[in-house]
Design brief:
With about 475 residues, the protein is α+β, with helices and mostly antiparallel strands. It is built from 13 helices and 25 strands.
C-alpha cells in the first residue's frame, strides 16, 4: 500500500512535514486559527518528554507549581524590555462577565511577572532562598505565520524560574539548566545540539544573558530548541517587583534570577530530524509505542501467543501495543506502524511459532531480523538501546555534513544559497554587521558555542566576516525556523 500520497521528504520537506504530522495522527488543525489539536500519538511524545525532563528537574531540586494564565497588564509594564519584547504577540482580555475590565489582562505569554509578584511576598530573608519553581503550562503568543509544533499561537511548555542570593549561584543554575536541555535533546530525543550564548539582539526580552541549545535540521535550517536565561536583577529591583531579602549582615539585597523553558516546538525538531520518505521515525526513549505486535493470520494459538508476548514485554517496562483486529489487512497494519515510526514491529505467524521465532521490522533503518522467542524481553531491550544510539549517530553525521567553517563573506553567501547549514565565522559582534548579514543572506547569529558546561568559549584571533575588523570569536550562523 502506498504511503497515502505522502510527499517524499527528500523532495519537499515543508510539504512532507505538514502531511506526515496529520497522517501519523500527531496533530491536526484547530477551528481556532493558528492553534493545533495535539492527538494522542503526538501528546504521547510530550508525556514522555515530561517524564524524562521531570527527573532532571528533580535532580536540580526544582519544585512544580502552577500560576494563573491571566496576568495584569501593569505587571508586564514593570520591566520595560520585557513588555516591549512581547507587545506584538500579546493576547489581551478587555471584557469578562459581560463587563469591561478595569485593568486589562494578558493571556500568559510567559510567567516571569505573575510569578515574581508572588516571589516578592515569599522572600524576606536569605533563609527563603533559593526559590526554584517550575510549571508545566500552556502559553499564548499571537503568531502571524504558524506551523505544527514549530510555531503556534498556543503551545505547551515547561518554564522554570529561580531566585538566588548571589549572582554566582544564579549563573551556575543557568548553565545547569542548559546542560539539562542538552541531555533531554541528545540522550532522550537523539537530536544533536550546540550549546551557546545568544547575541545581544537575540537575547530574551528582560534578560542579561540568554543561552540556547540549537539543532540543525536536515534541510539546513537551525531550530532554537530550548533557552536558559540569566535575568540579573532586572525583575527584582524595587521599581520592578522588589524581590529583596535581608542578608547575614541585615543588609537589604535584591535577588538574582533565572528562567528557562522547553516547549512542544522540540517535537517538530524530532519529526524533521529523524523522519524519512515513509513517515515519522521515533527514537525508542520517547516513542509512545516502542513495539507493535501483529499476528499473521487468525489462528487461536498465534493470537494467544501474541497476547502472552505483549504481557511479558509490558512487565519488562516496554511500551507495547498489539493489533489483533481483523478490520484491516496485515499489510495495512505494517504500513501504519511504519508511518507512525514505531521503532520495532513484531510479526508472528504459525511458521514462526513452530520455530520458536518472531519476525522483527526495525523502523529506523528499515531492516528485518528474526528473533528467538526465548528471552525475547532482554533481546528487545538491547535492540531498543541500539536503535537509540544509532539514530543519534545518524543525526550527528547529518549535522556534521551541514557544518561549515568559512573565512570569506562570499563563501557564507554561497553556502546560504545552496546547502545552507551551520556556518562558523568570525564576527566583530556589532549589531550593524549582524543586521546586514541577516538582510543579505537570511542567516542569523544562532549562538557563540560553549566548549565547557560552565559557558567557556573559544578565544581566537581573526577578522569579522562582514566588515574585516578584528574579532575574537567564531560565531555560529544559520538560517532558522
Amino acid at each position: 500500500m502506498a504511503k497515502r500520497n505522502l510527499t517524499p521528504k527528500s523532495e519537499n520537506m515543508s510539504k512532507w512535514y505538514t502531511q506526515v504530522i496529520q497522517q501519523a495522527k500527531l496533530a491536526d488543525y484547530s477551528p481556532v486559527k493558528g492553534c493545533m489539536v495535539i492527538r494522542p500519538n503526538g501528546y504521547g511524545i510530550w508525556e514522555n518528554i515530561q517524564k524524562s525532563y521531570q527527573t532532571y528537574l528533580d535532580d536540580m531540586d526544582v519544585k512544580n507549581a502552577y500560576f494563573p494564565i491571566f496576568i495584569p497588564m501593569s505587571f508586564l509594564e514593570r520591566e520595560a524590555d520585557h513588555v516591549e519584547g512581547f507587545a506584538p504577540e500579546l493576547a489581551v482580555v478587555t471584557h469578562a462577565g459581560g463587563e469591561e475590565l478595569t485593568e486589562k489582562l494578558v493571556v500568559r505569554p510567559t510567567s516571569e511577572t505573575i510569578m515574581y509578584d508572588m516571589y516578592s511576598k515569599w522572600v524576606q530573608s536569605h533563609r527563603d532562598l533559593p526559590i526554584k519553581l517550575n510549571q508545566w503550562a500552556n502559553v499564548v503568543r499571537w503568531e502571524k505565520r504558524t506551523s505544527f509544533f514549530l510555531r503556534t499561537t498556543e503551545f505547551l511548555w515547561q518554564e522554570a524560574h529561580s531566585a538566588h542570593a548571589t549572582k554566582d549561584e544564579a549563573i551556575k543554575t543557568m548553565y545547569q539548566a542548559l546542560e539539562s536541555y542538552r541531555m533531554i535533546a541528545e540522550d532522550i530525543l537523539a537530536i544533536p545540539v550546540v550549546k551557546g550564548r545568544k547575541s545581544e539582539s537575540e537575547r530574551f526580552a528582560g534578560a542579561d544573558v540568554t543561552t540556547t541549545i540549537e539543532a540543525m535540521m536536515p534541510d539546513g535550517k537551525a531550530l532554537q530548541s530550548g533557552t536558559s536565561h540569566h535575568l540579573g536583577q532586572n525583575f527584582s529591583k524595587k521599581e520592578a517587583f522588589n524581590i529583596s531579602f535581608q542578608d547575614d549582615n541585615d543588609t537589604t539585597q535584591f535577588v538574582w534570577q533565572n528562567s528557562w523553558g522547553l516547549s512542544t516546538r522540540i517535537i517538530g525538531g524530532l519529526i524533521m530530524t529523524h523522519g524519512d520518505d515513509d513517515g515519522v521515525v521515533m527514537p525508542p526513549k520517547v516513542a509512545p509505542t516502542q513495539v507493535m505486535i501483529v499476528p499473521a493470520g487468525n489462528d487461536d494459538k498465534v493470537i494467544n501467543k501474541c497476547k502472552e508476548i505483549a504481557d511479558s514485554l509490558k512487565k519488562a517496562g516496554i511500551r507495547v501495543t498489539k493489533d489483533l483486529s481483523t478490520k484491516a489487512s496485515m499489510g495495512w497494519k505494517l504500513n501504519d506502524a511504519e508511518l507512525q515510526g514505531i521503532p520495532i514491529t513484531l510479526v508472528l505467524g504459525q511458521r514462526e511459532l513452530d520455530q520458536n521465532q518472531i519476525s522483527a521490522s526495525i523502523r529506523y533503518n528499515q531492516t528485518k531480523e528474526t528473533l528467538l522467542l526465548t528471552n525475547l524481553e532482554s533481546t528487545i531491550l538491547e535492540l531498543l538501546e541500539t536503535i537509540q544510539k544509532e539514530m543519534f549517530k545518524k543525526a550527528q553525521a547529518k549535522t556534521s555534513e551541514l557544518t561549515h567553517e568559512v573565512n570569506s563573506y562570499n563563501e557564507l553567501q554561497e553556502i546560504m544559497k545552496s546547502s545552507r547549514g551551520y556556518i562558523k565565522a568570525f564576527w566583530c559582534e556589532s549589531e550593524e554587521c549582524e543586521k546586514q548579514i541577516k538582510e543579505e543572506t537570511k542567516a542569523t547569529t544562532r549562538c557563540l558555542p560553549f566548549i565547557s558546561t560552565d559557558g567557556e568559549v573559544q578565544e581566537e584571533s581573526g577578522t569579522c566576516i562582514k566588515c574585516g575588523k578584528p574579532a575574537s570569536h567564531r560565531w555560529l550562523f544559520a538560517q532558522a525556523y
